[in-house]
């Protein structure tokens, strides 16, 4: 069964050909008229963004995705997939995302995703799986600091992934019941 291209993919091919022939300036960024929907470009405030990845989960067009490297968490975007639904901005808990009403031809034609967010990533001290961004862990620690929790517990926040937290908790519970663990 042959794969068919979407209208957007065909549009990208046509614009790419126009840009190659010099008919369209490849660096063009133009304002989008108010009544024209489906075009826009998310921008992130690096000071506000904590790298929680809420935007990637909410993206209706599948344009935003999370990429985790050894010690970095990136939010990358295939701009040509963006439908400017603004769900990324609406659902951002830190109000770090705004959707500009512009069309960026260079980004639209690019084969490489745009890196919109780049934050430090913490990994589990037991298994090495990603836990969360350093900024998000720090924020959680500050939120729980006023609670009646020992400083030692607060400092442990963000050290373990979900799976290792469950395993460690289960071991503690079993030991407290007198079960010997090998």
How would you describe what is shown here?
By secondary structure, the chain is of the alpha+beta class. The chain has 2 domains: 28-121, Alpha-Beta Plaits, CATH 3.30.70.20; 124-182, no CATH class. It is 34% helix and 21% strand. It has 7 helices and 8 strands. The chain has helices at 7-20, 54-58, 87-91, 105-109, 134-144, 151-156, 162-176; strands at residues 29-31, 41-44, 64-68, 72-77, 97-100, 102-104, 114-123, 130-133. The strands form 3 sheets. It has a 4-stranded antiparallel beta sheet. It has a two-stranded antiparallel ribbon with strand order 1-6. A hairpin with a 6-residue loop joins strand 7 and strand 8. The longest helix is centred in the last third of the chain and has 15 residues, at 162-176. The mean pLDDT is 89.
Task: Please render the helix and strand layout as text.
Blueprint: H1 7-20, E1 29-31, E2 41-44, H2 54-58, E3 64-68, E4 72-77, H3 87-91, E5 97-100, E6 102-104, H4 105-109, E7 114-123, E8 130-133, H5 134-144, H6 151-156, H7 162-176
Antiparallel strand pairs: 1-6, 2-5, 3-4, 4-7, 7-8
């Amino acid at each position: 069964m042959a794969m068919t291209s979407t209208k957007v993919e065909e549009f990208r091919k046509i614009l790419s050909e126009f840009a190659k022939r010099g008919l369209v300036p490849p660096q063009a960024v133009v304002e989008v008229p108010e009544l024209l929907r489906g075009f826009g470009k998310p921008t992130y405030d690096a000071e506000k963004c904590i790298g929680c990845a809420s935007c990637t989960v909410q993206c209706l067009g599948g344009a935003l995705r999370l990429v985790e490297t050894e010690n970095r968490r990136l939010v990358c975007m295939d701009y040509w997939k963006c439908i400017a639904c603004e769900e990324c901005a609406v659902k951002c808990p830190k109000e770090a995302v705004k959707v500009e009403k512009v069309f960026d031809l260079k980004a639209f034609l690019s084969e490489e995703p745009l890196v919109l967010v780049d934050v430090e990533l913490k990994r589990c001290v037991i298994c090495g799986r990603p836990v969360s961004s350093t900024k998000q862990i720090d924020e959680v620690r500050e939120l729980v600091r006023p609670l009646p929790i020992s400083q030692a517990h607060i400092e442990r926040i963000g050290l373990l992934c979900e799976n290792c937290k469950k395993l460690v908790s289960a071991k503690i519970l079993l030991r407290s019941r007198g079960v010997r663990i090998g």
